[in-house]
Structure formats: C-alpha cells, structure tokens
C-alpha cells in the first residue's frame, strides 16, 4: 500500500502558479501534496529569506519556476535588445544558481523547471540560434549553465519544461491568461508538470517500478507464434508493424540497460515461445535479457505472483503490459498494486506508450541499478546451487560470502540514500531522507552509520545493507537496520548485529537495543529480531542485548577490509 | 443537436476541466442552475479567469467559431453573464446568433 502522508510542496515563482497548485493538490494519484504558495512575484527575495513562513518545518519539496527575464536582469536587458554580453548573462545565472543551492539545504527535494521563451519571441528568425544574438541560443546556454551549476546539490533536479509545452500544443502559452491573471502557461502545461513532479516524488520515496512483465503474442511481436510459427511472426523487416515491434523491443532493452528488469508472462507452449526468442533473427531481446518467465496456459495472475516470489519483488514493483484488454482487466482487478497501463490497440504506438510511462523515475542511477539484470542472472545460479546441497549451512559455505563494512562517505552516499529510501521489508525504522540529510545525520557526534557490500563466488551484490547506531548515555540504539531483499537470509543480518555490538562493546555501553517501528511492509524485520530470542530480549517494540556481549560473526561469512 | 444543447455540453466539459483544480468538496455541479459569481457564486477571481479562457478555447475547438468573453461589452455586465452556468450559456448563444446573423 502507498503511504497516506501528505507532502508539503512550496511553490516559488514570479508568475501566478495557482493553477499548478490546484493540479498538484487535487490530482488523486499518490502521493498527496499540500501546495504552499510563496509570496507571488518575489522569487529572489523568497530564496534569500529562509525565515519566511513557507520555509518552516523543512518542506518536502520546493518547485522554483521562473521566467528568465525576472531573475536574470541582464537577460531582461537582452529582451529589449540592449548591449549585454553572454558572459554577463551567465555570470548572473551563476549567482542565481548559488541562491538555489543555498535554498536546497532547507528542503528535501527541489525542482527547477528550465527556462523557456514563447515561440513568438524569435522576432529575428534565422538569427535566433546565433551566439550573442539569438534569444533562444542564449536561453539554451543559460539552461545548460544552470543545470551544470545545480549538479553540486544532490537534491535539486532541473525539469524539462519543453516536454510539457510540446504535449500542451498550441495552448501552451496563453497571452490571455497572462494579461488576466499573470499566469504564463496554459493549464495543460501545469497538468503535465504536476504529473511529472508527482512521478519524481514517487521515485524519491522508493516507489519506482523495477520490473516490466510483458506478454508475447501481439505484444512483443505480431501474430500468434503457436499458430503461425516463429518464421512468420511480424517482427522487423520492411514492414511498418514489424519495425514498430522491433522499436518496442529496443525500448524495452534500453529500460533493461537502465536497470529495469524484464520478465515474460504468456499463454503459450513454452518450448514454442522460447524457440521463437532464440531463433528469430530480428529479436532484439534475447533470453538472458529476461530475469524470469512463466510461459504456460495457467492463469496470468497466478503466474505473475509466482514470478514476483521468484524474483523476490512485491507487486508494487511491477508493470504488466499485455495487448489483451481482458487479461489487463483481470490483472488490474486481482493485483491492484501491479501497474497495468492502458495499452493502445495500434502496435505503432507501443514504443511511445512505453517510453511515456511515468513510473520508472529514480532520483539517481547507481552501479547496482545498472547491473540489476546481471545480479538476477547470478541469483538464478545461487538458487540452482541450493538445489544440489543438503543443508542451508552447506549452501552458505559454498557461496563463500564476503562482507565489506564501510563508513558512510561521499562515494557511497548516493547508493546508501537510494537503499534507505526504497527498502521496505528488512527495514527497522523506515526513515526516508535525502543525501544531504543522511550525511548530516551520520556526521553527528553520537551517530555512526555503516554500509555493507556483499559479494560471493557468483558475483557482487553491491551495497545492500545499512546499519546505524545512536549512542546514548549507557546504551546504543540501532536506528537503521536495512538490508536489500536480494541478500536476505544469508546471515548478513547477523553480520550486521556483530558490527553493531562489536562497536558498542568497544565504547563500554551497557545495552544495545533496536526499536522496531512498524509499517505495512516491514514485518519481516520484526520477525527476524523476534527469532533472535534469547540472544535479544523483546520488551514491547524493543529488542535488547547486553552491551558487553558481542554478537558472534557467522562462521561462513568473511569480513573483508 | 440544437445549438443551445451543444453550448451546454461545452460548458459541462469546461466544468470537468475546472474541477480538476478544485478539491472534491468544492466541485462545481454540471447543472445550468449552478451559481458562478455573485453572492452564491462558487468561483473566485482565478476561477473566473479559468472559466473564461477554457470556455473560449473549447467553443472555438468544438464549434469552429471564436467568441470573446473579455471585451468591454461582456465585462460591463459580468455579474449578469456569469451569474450561473445557464446565464453564461444564454450569453454564448446570443453571441453565436449575432455572428451567424452577421
């Protein structure tokens, strides 16, 4: 279930954003947003004064949406065709960027739609893209400079305003709305912007989809492979439909390369379908592009559930794509947490529909994301090994697991923050924080935070654990106890407890305890701590251990420096 | 479909648009008696601006005939024209009839 929390979003602008606020606040999609509008028309002053009411209580999000002429005075001079150099303009962009970076320290996330000019501004036509002359050329350079400057703040994201304008079409700019209400854009622009901001926020809160489950016949290729044979499928060649199916596969492959897992659920004879994937010369997707598949004549809902179990993912991670409206309706009804997009009947629209989905937003891309498909491939090898051994202990020993425990530092901050914000099951307190907030917390005197990298003979699972301690008078509280589901049940949990108790013991504390904060998803964490009795004693929502006794490190785990 | 009915449908579609900006408890009813401005009106100034602009756009798109709701003539009788959805429909009907009659 998505959380019900309402997130505060401060809107800062030199123009009227009331309509944007309306869409943000009243769009029924998760997450709920409370829009707070900063004083109208004073963006620079608002950014400078952190004591304004709108900045109190650390807002979750700020959207700073301005016209370039209102915050860059030299650009305003350019609009009047006065003599101003590009260098002067960019100097002011640097100053404005510094204001934004400074502001970002007081919010969790900030979004800055990049600057645009209405097309009627290009009065000099062909000179519009000339450096030092054309306004469009200058705005493009200003935007690039802004984006480069803002890269130093990990919680600021520059948004693509052009995308919204393109989708809004001829009503994107409305002189009428401007003169009547100081509203720059038509409502379609605000609607698109609100959806993008919400999608981005979902990603930051850990709700990005991680898996695309596709049907085969008339979805990945044209035709029914069981009827026509793989040689006669519509795929590639000099055929508009065939090209569209190839492009759709290319789009899926690009998603996979970005860290989204692919899987198949199809009603077919498995042997026939797999033969098509292996043998068709125009197949872009190969078998090893898929993390798993269920190709049989069983109910697709059950197949999806089985697949999710195999991949250790929850239904809220999945997107299901099928050309058959009946199958889509059944999955949508039975598995409401699986996202089932409306799918066009026309295959020519498949690639664009896939690439337009707003459910894969991620605040950052780590090496672990990019290697996710490989990791699932190696996971299959581990599970195959498991079938050949006699006990869990033997399996763990033969995996030759190595764990590297590191303090939080700039190089692992991005991945650690990502893990903190998206892990639901093995998560003791389910704290959600930005990179800056996490680093600030870890740097406090009585706080310690470690990350764990896990690898074994099959490969590197990457940074998959976070452990943090808060040292109080005579006790040490385990604040974060987070482990990715991809390494659960391999005694990494016990290794984390060894790390915590070993450190606490060195400080001479009397007790180490973990306070469990329940959510709708983290019962596995509770069950784990409960299973530790009597080594950890449960008292209400706390699990306590004598601080003088370190928890033993599991035998088959090798701790590496 | 009679012209007045077409205008009503356009205005109901405009209401759908405006309601996306409002919380559910403040949604405008798709009813010609729905008060817009005045003592019982449901629209603030920003709401009225949106109503005007979206109505002009949709009328032009649906009927292919542009109308103007921000001229002196309309603004001088704004409380009458925008009193209810029905009075607005009547006014648009009048504007279209005048255009048709030349």
Q: What key attributes describe this structure?
A:
A: 561 residues; alpha/beta; Rossmann fold; 9-stranded mixed beta sheet; 22 helices; 18 strands; B: 102 residues; mainly alpha; Non-ribosomal Peptide Synthetase Peptidyl Carrier Protein, Chain A; 0% strand
**What's the main sheet of chain A like?**
9 strands, mixed
Secondary-structure-based class of chain A equals alpha/beta
Mass-distribution shape of chain B: globular
CATH class of chain B: Mainly Alpha
CATH architectural label of chain B: Orthogonal Bundle
Radius of gyration of chain A: 27 Å
Distance from N terminus to C terminus of chain B (CA atoms, Å) equals: 22 Å
Q: Biggest interface: chains and residue counts?
A: A-B, 18 and 16 residues
Q: Find the CATH topology of chain B.
A: Non-ribosomal Peptide Synthetase Peptidyl Carrier Protein, Chain A
Strand content of chain B: under 5%
Cα radius of gyration of chain B in angstroms: 13 Å
Count, helices of chain B: 5
* Average predicted confidence as pLDDT of chain A: 93
Notes on the structure:
The complex is a heterodimer of chains A (561) and B (102). With 561 residues, chain A is an alpha/beta fold. Chain A has three domains: 199 residues, SGNH hydrolase (Rossmann fold), CATH 3.40.50; 146 residues, Rossmann fold, CATH 3.40.50; 183 residues, 3-Layer(aba) Sandwich (Aminopeptidase), CATH 3.40.630.30. Chain A contains 22 helices and 18 strands. In chain A, the strands form three sheets. In chain A, strands 10, 11, 12, 13, 14, 15, 16, 17 and 18 form a nine-stranded mixed sheet that branches. A five-stranded parallel sheet of chain A has the order 2-1-3-4-5, with helices on both faces. A four-stranded parallel sheet of chain A has the order 8-7-6-9. Chain B is mainly alpha-helical and 102 residues long. Chain B has a single domain, classed as Orthogonal Bundle (Non-ribosomal Peptide Synthetase Peptidyl Carrier Protein, Chain A). Helices cover 60% and strands 0% of the residues of chain B. Chain B has five helices and no strands. In chain B, α1 crosses α2 and α1 crosses α5. The longest helix of chain B has 19 residues. Chain B is globular. The mean pLDDT of chain B is 93.
